[in-house]
Amino acid sequence: MSGTYPSILLEEAVNQFASLPSVGRKSALRLVLHLLRQKPEDVEAFAGSLTKLKREVRYCKICHNISDTDVCPICSSLNRDRQTVCVVENVQDVMQIEATGQFFGLYHVLGGIISPMDGIGPKDLEIESLIARIEPEEIKEVILALPTTMEGDTTNFYLFRHLTNDHPGLRVTQIARGVAVGGELEYTDEVTLGRSILNRIEFTP
Amino acid sequence: MSGTYPSILLEEAVNQFASLPSVGRKSALRLVLHLLRQKPEDVEAFAGSLTKLKREVRYCKICHNISDTDVCPICSSLNRDRQTVCVVENVQDVMQIEATGQFFGLYHVLGGIISPMDGIGPKDLEIESLIARIEPEEIKEVILALPTTMEGDTTNFYLFRHLTNDHPGLRVTQIARGVAVGGELEYTDEVTLGRSILNRIEFTP
Hints:
The structure is a homodimer. In chain A, strands 4-3-5-6 form a four-stranded parallel beta sheet. A two-stranded antiparallel sheet of chain A has the order 1-2. Chain A contains eight helices and six strands, in the order αααββαβαβαβαβα. Chain A has helices at 8-18, 25-36, 40-56, 73-76, 91-100, 128-134, 150-166, 190-198, and strands at residues 58-59, 66-67, 84-88, 106-109, 141-144, 171-174. By secondary structure, the first copy, chain A, is an alpha/beta fold. Chain A has two domains: 8-56, Helicase, Ruva Protein, domain 3 (Orthogonal Bundle), CATH 1.10.8.420; 59-174, 3-Layer(aba) Sandwich (Dna Topoisomerase Vi A Subunit, Chain: A, domain 2), CATH 3.40.1360. In chain A, helix 1 (8-18) crosses helix 2 (25-36). At the A-B interface, helix 1, helix 2, helix 3, strand 2 and helix 5 of A face helix 1, helix 2, helix 3, strand 2 and helix 5 of B.
């Protein structure tokens, strides 16, 4: 559907939605017209929730996850393993790992990964604050859980070097890469399959 | 990703986005976190465009399309064929037909179609205003361009009966149904293919 909108107000709202990632102009129009059919107070609530979030959002001053309080519930919990910190790229990753129910330590949200192409260097990320929290918090292990991309590998390497340099006794691990659970070997890419052989572990029946 | 959000503000914004049609919770989170990375004034602009649209939106008092003015540019244009009105379900359909560049008449936006299942009857739609505009506007032809569904057929039938009843000389047509241009017969459903044979037209080389 090429573009003559019957109203500038409509077009502006569509432009806003179409600026979101993976929302095309046709979907944007459908979403805006859906909102237009809702009650005025519902549209105000929709818009209000966004401005309120942006105005009032806080980040945990320890792990930098989004939080409603200065220190997030995970960082202030007495039931977590406080000697282990899992380093992730963003807020979604914390939610993903929490959803597994397999990790009981703390987190550190970098807010991105090192990406020279996008102009993101170590100074743009929460790396200094990570290194600074190791000693006072008596952290024994840092788990690197960053994406398996060139940028992720670069960031892993940078973190490893700085963490072990400043804290020689620290254990630095990374999450296992391998064939997905339920995955067929036939459909696994060669690099992943190769790594799953190199990084094989003892079979425990 | 099952649900413990690190912040209630975040969760509320995600709930709002997830209430939109065909936006899941995971997409909603991605969209909200994208907005959160934007400048405060950009988030205000996003939210503002929605509330402004909802507060200030007007509908053309003749064709009921969304409009910034009391009478929309199409209805007030002197270059359109004012004897032909194309009846459509909604605003998107006007834009779709305008984009074809094949129609030069006027429109009438019903604002829906008759759907007893959804509790939408003739009184909920702009049907009376359609019938009322035929005579004063000296309209000679009404083109029915509604969806090919049971509801569309019901609405077509209802409109035909009332339009011809009140205005015996009026020509009522409907858009052609048939095999899509570029479409293979092999992949065309039987009903469409059958209708395309019944409604065959003279071959014009």
